[in-house]
Amino acid sequence: MNGTLILPLFLALVAFAVFRLLSRSKLGKTSKTSDARLNRIKFVSGLFQWMIAIYVGMVILLMFGCWFGWVAVLPGTTRIWFSEHQTFTAPFNIPTPVLTLASIRFGLMVFCAGVMFRLLGLYRQGKYFTARNISYLRFLGYYVVVDWFVTNQLETLAQQTTIFLTQPIIGLAIIFIAWIMDEGRKIQEEQALTV
């Protein structure tokens, strides 16, 4: 697949997803008694679900292109980027350890996108503070920390030792927020049972 076709294909798929969501949405048909804010959350969640699905498809296509050499000829300025110091011009120049770590990173990214897709699906259903939502948020926090670790391993292979702690701190903050939400959910359930 030609690298110059990826952007127009991506834009066409996004336009199709937006058109499909707008044609099926009930935003213009809401009655006065329905909550417009909840409908907006449901609509935007659906829109993000489509964007995630398109993104995952493109990432999978790119990974197969790197593994099997489908993107052997890239436009002159195109680079395959795995981390700050792991950039390549052709899939055949990628060393096996780098390709292995990059495959792990992309696999985690696709799995994380699946978790985000499910979380947004719960939002579309109107489920905002359930135990499942919280477990998905907690997983996203763990993903951020693990992605930082894998990225640092890629940088180590490039003989770069700069370590920034911003990403794991953000991951731990997401885990902390998920814990607070879980405790709040438990308190709310206890209060509902005592009333």
The largest beta-sheet arranges its strands as 1-2
DSSP strand count? 2
Q: End-to-end distance, in Å?
A: 62 Å
Helix coverage percent: over 70%
Oligomer: single chain
Compute the number of structural domains.
1
Instruction: Characterize the main sheet.
Output: 2 strands, antiparallel
Characteristic terms for this protein:
195 residues, mainly alpha
Task: Please describe what this structure looks like.
There is one protein chain. The protein is mainly alpha-helical. The protein has one domain (3-194). Helix content is 70%, strand content 4%. The protein contains 5 helices and 2 strands, in the order ααββααα. Strands 1-2 form a two-stranded antiparallel sheet. Strand 1 (80-83) and strand 2 form a beta hairpin. Helix 1 (6-24) runs antiparallel to helix 2 and helix 4 packs antiparallel against helix 5. The longest helix is centred in the N-terminal third of the chain and has 33 residues, at 36-68. It is flat, with a radius of gyration of 21 Å. The model has no long low-confidence stretch (mean pLDDT 78).
Topology of this protein?
Layout: H1 6-24, H2 36-68, E1 80-83, E2 86-88, H3 96-124, H4 131-157, H5 166-194
Antiparallel strand pairs: 1-2
At a glance:
With 195 residues, the protein is mainly α. It has 5 helices and 2 strands. Helix content is 70%, strand content 4%.
